[in-house]
Amino acid sequence: MTIQQLRYIVTLEKERHFARAAEKCLVTQPGLTIQLKKLEEEIGIKIFDRSKVPLEPTLLGLEIIEKAKRILREVDTVRDFVIEQKNILSGKVHLGVVSTLSPYLIPLCLREFQKTLPEVEFIISEDSTVGLMKTLETGELDVALMATPTGNPSLREFPIFDEPFMAYLPLGHKSSEQDSYELDDQDRANLLILEGEFCYNSQLLDICSLDTSNSFHNFSYEINSIETLKNMVRQGFGFAIVPLLSTIGQNGETKARSIPFSAPQPAREISLVTSDTFSKKLLVEKMSQAIWTSLPDSFKGNTTYKKVRWDDSPYFSKKIKQ
């Protein structure tokens, strides 16, 4: 016995005609007849007397139909409750943001979050991409803001924008006064990467066509933030690739300069990510709108980027297995 079969017999009782009932139920007349027969065989009771015109329910059939109507009202109540819950825009939302994005994007969009979702209390935390995926799967996070695609079938991704990568060079570098940057072998050998952020590093190594960082410096420094990377570059210790948002408002620098790569510019896709069981689509839509509204105008053009993935990187696969 299915909910659909109950809807069929209720409609048949109302229309007293197979063709009209089938049309109301958006099913073929043979399909409706087959389902009615299956239901009657399952319960061992004839619900309708087919010998009469118009069609009439049997005495037991009338009782079954009345019970079916009550069941369907309850089902509709549950459905309406679920829809209402999905559209609730209040309460606490645990939002995780990848650490290579959080310091630059959250200050931009926080006021728009408050304006668009005034009844939602955001609890925001930073983590690595791997950490965010794990806490989404365990339910510790509701939503994550991170680079995608993740390649994880248990997560759902809602892309918002593409963020281009920039070459970050010390003043005095041969390319520091150019309008665009072409990667050379010397910079490949001097690339600075982040400790622990394997997904971000995978993108940088892909841009440079490297399997691992080849920094020739005679020291080891476990760098954990983009700002530290930039400070290292300012002091002449290498070359960095940084996301565009991390360079906004820093055009007056005296020791380093950020330069866009030559077209097509490499970029990362930024998305809101949820578990595949997360049901509040309206919340995700409102958050996406708030983020997009908060972005600088330079992100809203029709620039074609070369999207850089990390989920299929050999470097990433090797690191997470260690």
TrEMBL record:
CDD domains: PBP2_OxyR (cd08411). Pfam families: HTH_1, LysR_substrate. GO terms for cellular component: protein-DNA complex. Keywords: Activator, DNA-binding, Transcription, Transcription regulation. InterPro entries: LysR_HTH_N, LysR_subst-bd, WH-like_DNA-bd_sf, WH_DNA-bd_sf. GO terms for molecular function: DNA binding; DNA-binding transcription factor activity. PROSITE patterns: HTH_LYSR (PS50931). Residues 1-58 form the HTH lysR-type domain. Belongs to the LysR transcriptional regulatory family. This is Hydrogen peroxide-inducible genes activator. The lineage of its organism: Bacteria, Pseudomonadati, Bacteroidota, Flavobacteriia, Flavobacteriales.
